[in-house]
Amino acid sequence: MYSLLSSIAVLIPLICAQSSFTPARPPAIPLAVRTPYLSTWQAAGSNGGNGGYLAGQWPTFWAGQINGWAGLIRVDGETYTWMGKPDPLPTIVTQTAFEYTSTRSTFTMDVDGKVSMNITFLSPVSPTNKERQGLPVSYMSVNVQSSDGGEHDVSIYTDISAEWTSGDRSKVAEWSRGTARGMGAAAGNANIAYHKVWRQVQQEFSEDSDQAAWGNWYYTTEDAQQLTYQSGADVDVRKKFTDDGTLANTDDTNFRPINQAFPVFAFAKDLGSVGNQNVETLFTINLLQQNSVQFATGVNQIQSMPAYWRAVYGDDELSAVATMYYDYQDASASSAGLDAQVDRDARAVGGNDYATITSLAVRQAFASVQLAGTQDENYLFLKEISSNGNFQTVDVVFPFHPILMYLNPDWMKLILDPLFINMEAPGLWPQDYAIHDLGDHYPNATGHPDGIAALQPLEECGNMLIMTLAYAQRTNDIRYLDTHWDALHRWGQWLITNNSVIPFNQISTDDFAGPLANQTNLALKGIIGLKAASIIANLTGRSTEAQEYDEQSRDWIQQWQDLGNLPNANPPRTSLSYGDEESWGLLYNLYGDALLEADLVPKEIYEQQSDFYPTVQARFGVPLDTRARRSKNDWEMFVAAIASDETRDMFLSDLVKFINETPTAGPVTDLFDVDSGDYPPGTGFRARPVVGGWFALLALPEGRRGLPR
């Protein structure tokens, strides 16, 4: 009896062992997350995820399709699974802990009480280093050491599948393998070993289910005597390692459809006898495309914009790949600095909850943009991921831009420039109001020369005026305002001509809610946009226009209070739309007044709204407005940034609760049901760049966070 009970006591913690999650368990864990096409995650939420464990489930592209990525370890002749879900499935290791920072996801594993593993996925974010930010690489560091004080014979294995090359799994993949000389001081005399795999028929600037239909994928590690390799059918290659602890050093030459005897590309490394000293093995996953996007710069002038890595390496892919591998130590140190900066600054203004929120947003936000061009001419191009795929959507750039304003406001120019180029080039945009986007679907910025695009004229005029001024104020780039005065002035005039204090029936950035006339929040965007035009005119020495815009914006803010403010309501608040005294909504466009230090809106409005939001708090946050039980957490962070400490902390706490408890299993959504935490009916936003708006507090000037003083 004692022996049986002892056995049960040992089994229970093994069966029921649960991982810790620090600082939270997100709905999907970022693994290799660098660009719109290098974006692989581990689903965690209950609607399709496994709770946040690296083993027992396949990683997926942000859109949900599997990107096969396997990890096995052999200890003293027994094989275990530490990543993915091979079939047959060797015993799964015990995950004991998970932790994320702004650039890293780290899993801690126990292998049968014999050895411990630490697997770190690093996706560098380098907002002050174009060369590093332009390198499309993500790192996986596998660390192994004895956990019982003994010595153990250990080998590790990993592979990727051809699924990375196309979202259409009937497409034929092709591949090759080789070695390349290490580059950089850290390489010494070492070489890298690589598998290269690609969609056999390349279609530049095309997608298959949002995955790129062009480019070469490289899976690399350091070449060594203890390293073996193999390509072939998934079951055959993984069985070879499971049985023998090594691979056959053979190459499959039967190029075939991705879903036919799924081809995988594997490395195995014999670590020898592993004791108390940690043994690290590094792998990289890279996507090298010659060109990133196509971009219309004039009538019948469409440029293929080179991927930025080519600004340094030309067409030499192997030199780029080898450099990326041996840049790991520097990239890791730089990323650790960014991690510490975000954590420190977020805690200083919003406590632990805000650090949890901002550190989750960094990789997702930057994986929605690509740096492309030459050293002399380069831009930051943005994909409106998951909602419709538009290119450089102005009202998506707007909620994205706080992360740039915080980390490097100089880069605001890189994301605004393509918009100005398009709207200022003759024949590319015939309307007087600001454009909605540069193309219906990324990576094709072919524009709208017919003048037909999503109709959000007030929204986009206000956004462009506010963002352009915010950039110039923070960087003191007054010349930029002068250079683009004609466009900025045209948008200011459009706001006046169309009496934007009383918006006609139109959609706002929250287009899923449909059109609505007399939107209180949208009107405020136009009023603050006009005030921005006044400040721009003043900074560029145009006193007549400055006075005109200033007087009009001040007149409008008085009208706006009469039309949209409900000071006698219970509780006092602004309405969703003029005349609807039962309505309300998040007044997130008030944020622009604080960002620009415009001092246009009376402080009583700030105080009133801050007091109101807690009265309509739901389980996971405050509804966007009275039309539905849904909200957007980017806008929640905008209003939290300009609220009292108590209201701010309420919003932060609710968002952390959502991150931990939402049943969604994709990269964190901004649009959610406030009661269930799930996607609202008919929606499924995920991986969108708008989480850059979670940095709204940190983007504000010193002294402008919270309520006006």
TrEMBL record:
A Gene Ontology biological process term: carbohydrate metabolic process
Signal peptide start-end: 1-17
InterPro entries: 6-hairpin_glycosidase_sf (IPR008928), Glutaminase_GtaA (IPR052743), GtaA_central (IPR032514), GtaA_N (IPR033433)
Entries under SUPFAM superfamilies matching the protein: Six-hairpin glycosidases (SSF48208)
Domain Glutaminase A N-terminal: 103-345
Coiled-coil boundaries: none
Keywords for the protein's UniProt record, in alphabetical order: Signal
Domain (Glutaminase A central) ranges: 351-698
Keyword presence, Magnesium: no
Source organism, top-level taxon: Eukaryota
A Pfam family annotated for this UniProt entry: DUF5127
PANTHER family referenced in this protein's UniProt entry, alphabetically: GLUTAMINASE A, GLUTAMINASE A-RELATED
Name of protein: Glutaminase GtaA
Species this chain originates from: Cercospora kikuchii
